[in-house]
Automatic annotation (TrEMBL):
Name this protein carries in UniProt: RES family NAD+ phosphorylase
Domain RES: 181-220
Organism: Lachnospira intestinalis
InterPro entries noted in UniProt: RES_dom
A family per Pfam: RES
Length: 235
């Protein structure tokens, strides 16, 4: 599936393709803290725990994705906010000079069931079979399978199935007291693999807010805070 990037191309989109989809980042605030933009930028001295795709101390930019209240609600869940705590949130904007950079979208199959994915492959097989029968009746010759089309269909099936497994069965919330450096190690290895292929980030489903998605950028300078800063108290 990953040979010569053939499979992963199906998961690939550019940052330019998500321009217009709101991005944002939230943070827990102290009782009297008045935050500025700097407060929303990752700084290694404050990253004391492993994140989903990066070890402690790594300044990757994790952003919530979604329209309306989706991204702020997702950010609240990701920050593990509790009632009575102060929460700060601001939007982010991708820089113009990074819009050609590629990201891996692990959510491409989220809207599909496994049956949907399997049915698409089955429909391809039936189409090829009917094509072969039609030509055979017209010419009396047996027509070999179109290997190129078959390989393409199988690759898509594999990528969509793999992505759905990752997104819905492996990305699960961690319980209290677990060692994040161990639990997140497979995903951190996956991120390093994507980096080796030249990707700039990963889009993935939120483990704590099913309606939301997250985007991690391997270079925190690819996006910048914009607009006003919203401060609220969790109820």
């Amino acid at each position: 599936m990953f040979h010569d990037h053939n499979g992963i191309k199906l998961q690939t989109k550019t940052l330019g393709s998500i321009v217009g989809i709101p991005l944002g980042r939230g943070t827990r605030l102290k009782e009297t803290e008045i935050p500025d933009y700097e407060r929303f930028l990752p700084k290694k001295e404050f990253i004391n725990e492993d994140n989903q795709f990066s070890p402690a101390g790594v300044e990757w930019l994790y952003l919530a994705v979604g329209d309306g209240n989706t991204r702020s609600e997702c950010a609240k869940k990701e920050c593990r906010m509790k009632a009575g705590e102060r929460f700060g949130f601001c939007d982010f904007q991708l820089l113009d000079n990074v819009l050609g950079q590629k990201i891996v979208d692990l959510t491409i199959a989220d809207a599909l069931s496994y049956a949907d994915i399997n049915n698409e492959l089955e429909k391809h097989g039936q189409k090829q079979y009917k094509r072969s029968l039609k030509i055979a009746k017209a010419t009396g010759l047996n027509v070999p399978i179109d290997k190129s089309a078959f390989n393409e269909a199988m690759t898509k099936w594999g990528v969509f199935t793999y992505s759905k497994v990752l997104s819905q069965q492996i990305f699960i919330p961690l319980g209290d007291g677990v060692d994040k450096s161990i639990e997140y190690a497979p995903f951190q290895s996956l991120a390093q693999y994507f980096i080796s292929l030249g990707y700039a980030g990963i889009m993935y489903g939120s483990t704590v807010y099913p309606q939301g998605k997250n985007l991690v950028l391997f270079d925190k300078n690819m996006a910048t805070p914009v607009g006003g800063i919203d401060i609220s108290i969790i109820v």
